[in-house]
Amino acid sequence: MAWSDISVTLSGISGDSLTLSASNPRGAAEVARVGVGVRLADGTETRLESENVTFGAGQTKSVRLTASSTIDTTTDSPEPLPPT
């Protein structure tokens, strides 16, 4: 099992935060981070990334990420990232 097997989707955007749903499809625990690129209301683009998240076997977690101002849209697909 590798961190790259974590499945990540966008659940929603509200103001300056967004929520990602991340699932571990395997039968063993895994540690990963999640991230996504966003465009803010002022037109600037940035990348939001979580701290390490521990996923139990078969577990799904919601991960909330917060930007410095209102999020307009995502600029790429949410993805798993290696733990730090």
What's this model, at a glance?
The chain has 84 residues and is an all-beta fold. 0% of the residues lie in helices and 57% in strands. It contains no helices and eight strands.
Description:
- The chain is an all-beta fold and 84 residues long.
- The protein is 0% helix and 57% strand.
- It is built from no helices and 8 strands.
- Strands 3, 4, 5, 7 and 8 form a 5-stranded antiparallel sheet that branches.
- The chain is elongated.
- The two termini are 17 Å apart.
- The model has no long low-confidence stretch (mean pLDDT 96).
User: Which radius of gyration do the C-alpha atoms yield?
Assistant: 13 Å
Number of helical elements: 0
| Beta-strand content bin | over 45%
Largest sheet: 5 strands, antiparallel
- Summing up helix and strand content along with how strands pair, one would put the structural category as mainly beta
Helix content: under 10%
Ranges with pLDDT <50 over ≥5 residues?
none
Report the principal-axis shape. elongated
- Terminus-to-terminus distance: 17 Å
> What's the count of strands?
8
List the keywords.
5-stranded antiparallel beta sheet, 3-stranded antiparallel beta sheet, elongated, mainly beta
Topology diagram in text:
Elements: E1 7-14, E2 17-23, E3 30-40, E4 45-49, E5 53-55, E6 60-66, E7 71-74, E8 79-81
